[in-house]
Amino acid sequence: MISPRTDHLIDLALDEDAGLGDVTSRAIFPAAHRSRAFIDAKQDLVVCGLEVAARVFARVDPALKTKLLARDGDCVKPGARVLAVAGPTAALLTAERTALNFMQRLSGIATKARAFADAVAGTGVRVVDTRKTTPGWRALEKYAVRCGGCFNHRSSLGEHVLIKDNHIAAAGSLARAVEKCRAAAPHAAKIEVEAKTLTEVKAALRASAEVILLDNMPPELIRRAVALIAGAAVVEVSGGVRLETIRDYALPGVDVISIGALTHSAVAVDLSLDLEPGHG
Questions:
Q1: Domain of 168: which CATH number?
Q2: I want to staple 194 with a disulfide (CB 3.0 to 4.6 A). Which of 102, 113, 213, 238 is the partner?
Q3: Which of 164, 206, 224, 242 is labelled catalytic?
């Protein structure tokens, strides 16, 4: 999970927070002062980012030793200890906020993803994320979505063709956009087309799109679109779907529901680091 990009993100975060040093911790604690600390859950949550947090501590000071007390994807209760760290007190406290920032954000996404996954349990519908991610964090945030039990849509523009309304407007027609993409895209690339109306669904079918994205359609219109598609393409639903309403959209014939809120609206969960002095 720890890629060069993640190391770079960690280094940027540490430089942002402690690039000039930690004047408070260095003033209070001599180099020989050691402590032990635990990262604890303060609410029900799905853990994510444990290895990232461990890497933060190691980047600040290799003398900081961590032990993972849970696994990413675990559902934990308030009071659960998920990570232990021991070593020089000043270094431990320097790393604290950056480690927690990564874990709180990623665990927030995983916790939100678990709620959506549970909401469609038994329907056979997959809930997937979108590219609405924090710049630079996409791989981590999509990992957190998987830890929560949901799935990933494309991770970049180069993975498969997705023809949206602006592509269609600029190309002149849906059929023309599909024709151009089919001629230029790699042979293994699927052609996905966004459709906002039943007329556009019919056009996507005539163009032999492999995936049809029903965008911002209410459930009653989705039922009619699914009947038109009749298994000829993968059916994706997106737009206007909330946790409280997702079951209304998880209709027979719908294969995928994409939810941008999995990443762009996830709230950081409550985790804290509690220190026990003198236990290094």
A1: 3.20.20.70
A2: 213
A3: 164
